[in-house]
User: Fold this.
Amino acid sequence: MKIVVCGLGYVGTTAGACLVQDGHRVVGVDVNRQKVDQFAAGIAPVSEPRVGDMLAAGRAGGRLGAATAIGNELDDADLAIVCVGTPSTANGSLDLDQIVAVAGEIGRAVRGRAARARPLMVVFRSTMPPGSMDGVVMPALVEAAGAAPGGHYEVAFNPEFLRESTAVADYYAPAKIVVGERAAGAARRLYGLYDGIRAPLFEMPFAAAELVKLTDNAFHALKVAFGNEIGRLALALGVAPDPVADAFLADTKLNISPAYLRPGGPFGGSCLPKDVRAISALAAARGVEAPVLANTMRSNDAHKRFLAQRVMDRLAPGATVLLLGLSFKTATDDMRESPLVDLAETLLGKGYDLRIHDPDLKGRKLVGANLRFVEQHLPHLSRVLVEDVADIGQPALVVRGKAMPEVEARLDPAWPLVDLVRL
Assistant:
């Protein structure tokens, strides 16, 4: 294929080098004349292992070109890949000016392009906030092209997950491939761009794909910050950080795993809230700045408020609500710091007719700290507990607070439901 790569920074240069190594004809486009001259000469404009050799081989094979403007390069191209920069603005948002400019340039080139058997695939790879493809890029592209995609051109969003210094290795062995589409199947698997690369493929709407890239990098940054906070605390306590890290990282069941990472309910119970407060207090007492740890409870409380509002937005004043679950997770009667107790307390305080069904409490006698916690927050619990969901008639809303498949199977599917287990 002939592929035009717009933007010769780290992503564009690496992508161009890999594509030309795969046997494609590649034309690199950038407004920076120095980058263009280097790329055309088979010299990498960026410092990245293996890229220079790959470009040199592509030039020797006659498969490499470069230009400072798209011009008529798209007339016989199969793909256009956009990798221009989206730098931070003063308020932290991303500047999409270069994206808009390139979208307009591509659109004008598409307008003058002769009809072909296969539409031009325009692939955007630059990092953008969710909604950018639909709200910014597509309007600019459609206006310049004079026609919507689906005819003689198509559009996709294909975020990159390349790390500087290992970009080539990451290109050929990615953890995943994400393709954002304006409609299911529209990206047509990017014309086989990833044939031969083994990785999970995720096809999704534009905005979801845009959010995946930001989510990945935010989590990477969070991990670095968390690890460094624990390291600072360890040093302040006279503890060597490495043994702590080794033991922490050895747990691939809960710590380094998908556990706890799917959006749903807040954390609760007798351990997590208590220990988060304890480690935060310990850091503060030792004069260690640990804002990630210190704000974990604040984030959890914000999620509790979010879920409560999500429920109340569906209710008329005084409406009947059936809450499925009260203890902090399935198969336990522990209600200490349960988010569902907080939710029940909020709904009762707002005057809703609350009914609670929790099979894990049936026949149980609460004792000790568990009993004291419930008496403090829900002193009239016995009046709102129901033995069977059939006892309450038809509620205005069912709130699924925790999984209970046998009960859920008996619910009338016509009853409105808010799921707090899976957002």
